[in-house]
Amino acid sequence: MLVEFGRRKLFGVVLGVSLELGEDIDRSKLKPVLAVIDTEPVVRPELLDFLLELARYYLAPIGEVLRLALPALERSSVEDLQEQGVLGHAVEAVGRMVQYAVVQHAAIAPDEVSGQTLEVWQTLSSQTAMPISALEKQHKSARQAVKKLALLGLCTIERREQERGVTALEWSPDQRPTLTDPQARAVLALTDALDRRTSQAFLLDGVTASGKTEVYLHAAEHCLKQGRGAIVLVPEIALTPQLTARFRARLGDAIAIVHSGLAGKERLHMWKQLQSGSFKVAVGARSALFAPVAELALICVDEEHDGSFKQEEGVRYNARDMALLRAHRAGAVAVLGSATPSLSSEAAVRQGKMTRLKLPARANQKAVLPKVTVIDLKRVGAGPSGDRFLSLPLYRALERCLAAKEQAILFLNRRGFAPSLVCEGCGQFVQCPHCSVAMTLHRARGERLVCHYCDYTIARIGTCGRCGSDKLSDEGVGTERVEEQLQKSFPEARIGRLDRDVAAGVKSERVLARMRRGELDILVGTQMVTKGHDLPSVTLVGVLNADSALSLPDFRAAERCFHLLVQVAGRAGRGDKPGEVLIQTRQPEHPAVALAAQHDVAAFTEREMRERQELGYPPFSRLALIKIDAVDAALAEREATRLAALARSLASPAISILGPAPAPLARLRNRYRFRFMVRGNDRAALRKVLLGLARSKPRGDVRVAIDIDPLSML
Ligand code: ADP
Ligand code: ZN
Ligand code: ZN
Hints:
Elements: E1 2-5, E2 8-11, H1 45-58, H2 62-69, H3 78-84, E3 97-103, H4 115-125, E4 129-131, H5 132-138, H6 142-151, E5 155-161, H7 181-196, E6 200-206, H8 212-225, E7 229-233, H9 240-251, E8 255-258, H10 264-276, E9 281-284, E10 296-302, H11 319-330, E11 333-338, H12 343-350, E12 355-359, E13 371-376, H13 392-403, E14 407-411, E15 420-423, E16 440-442, E17 448-450, E18 457-459, E19 472-475, H14 479-489, E20 495-498, H15 506-516, E21 522-525, E22 538-543, H16 557-569, E23 580-585, H17 591-597, H18 601-615, E24 622-630, H19 633-650, E25 656-668, E26 671-680, H20 683-695, E27 703-708
The chain binds adenosine-5'-diphosphate and zinc ion (2 copies).
């Protein structure tokens, strides 16, 4: 409904109605409701119950939590609503007609097509048809370009009903493999739980390419047979199209794709279809957890160990944790799948809260786990190209891979050309004026320096701000440099790059599609190349520097590094040809590296669990990180000290307060950052402290955030 709040008109959601008016309420100040927008409840009881519980758990305002679940209605201005037709009457979102550019069959661009027009043509001709609006997202002057192309007879402009969700993805018609025995056992356990209609949580503990997706598919299919619904969460938007296509091929069209990249009307469409029950399955990144799926029977979380399920702003929730909660309260089955289960899942299995389903081998009988070699960079020199980042063994492996016409993935956790620009005169590196970090040199699309934390960008500078020297050298290696150098070393190779600079949603899918079609020989990239992709022709994976992940000041650094290495190694040899993985490192003896090389998840888990227990870290305790920041450093520090003292005064002996201290990233976007940690095992005692902190009004212009079960310590 619409209400007047001060002078503003805002949305309200009715959570409850009381016929009695409290004594302390001044009747003269009450205002009438302006409009009732929905006559049916917008949030069904199951979802509302879950949202209330989530708000309670994270100490988050229920209003903000509700907005997570009502994405279609999030625009708060009344005009917007009228335009969308939400106010007062039913919503029309189905069948929106948009202009498409349609490629003429076998058209080849003549020489006169150049510049922007050529770029647009290249994008367009990689597909059969595209909405002009989608082209405009990638090329500013797409509309004019399309008109030109149409005049030349290369394409036509047509009005068509907008296709929703997946664009341009080849997925061969569904082939239903015969399940392997472990898959069949896992599916049976799940369908059995679904038939019993009780809530139960499972850990699908399956090595990379063991066919976990096939298990989700079978479980979802079973739900549909029961006339009930399912949610499938995946970590990255870039992964959604491939997975969605697989679900679609198997389960039919009644699947909603939910992610934050959807435009307002598309989201509203999805939301309505789910709400009404005509779509029964929602697939998407973390926000899909709030999809209004009717008769929810199943929630799958793919790659459950992945950090991107945690939202790091606004309501700081973890979709993996909350999937368990929603499933539990809805009486649904939860399946958390991973080749490298999080320690929380491991602990839950040991406590009997979760049932482990194991897929010990790759599904395709011919695909075995790749052979992994660790290369000690302290001992092994550079290959013939002289590139520091490419050791001789990796160089040779690339040569072999290219000669055999197979594909390689090279992983480096740094985008840009070089991580810093250092003055040879005084040793000073160019720092972001707003943050306490070095600026990264980028070269693609012009030389510039970019802060990877706040995106502040300047043209590359020629002289040192401190000593005036003009000798500035770029230090270190980023993905752009790797791409450039590789092209010099292997001029024949077709090399692609995948990182956040390339990857606005659709584009990353295009890079992956080229890889899948065999139009690329080598793919260089950041974490984005490590996740979930099923690229059967990739036989070589190179990790250029395993150490960068280990150096972070975070008790989870080893766990993350291990996950990363196992996952990236898992991209190799998924097809019929065996795979090979080379990990370059200066710490070959580090357990995260050595055990990843042996695919020994159990040994690593065991070791890490022991360590966590000794140090009293999760999953053997609960944590909350209290983050305080202000433009004025002294003010931030004072407030941090005050709140930490308050926390100590509220804490029982079972709770420990660690800090305050400056954050590892001490300054970000002009704000100085401090933090302290509240740790304990006793839920109630912990909650008492956190509630006390939440209720304490900050003094001065300071921001305070309570991050419950934090994942990032930066
Ligand atoms: P995961 O999600 O465990 O990494 P996927 O579900 O992507 O693995 O499966 C890996 C590959 O194995 C895919 O190409 C898939 O089509 C194939 N696959 C899955 N199950 C089977 C099976 N039972 N028999 C043969 N191939 C299978
Ligand atoms: Zn200098
Ligand atoms: Zn910055």
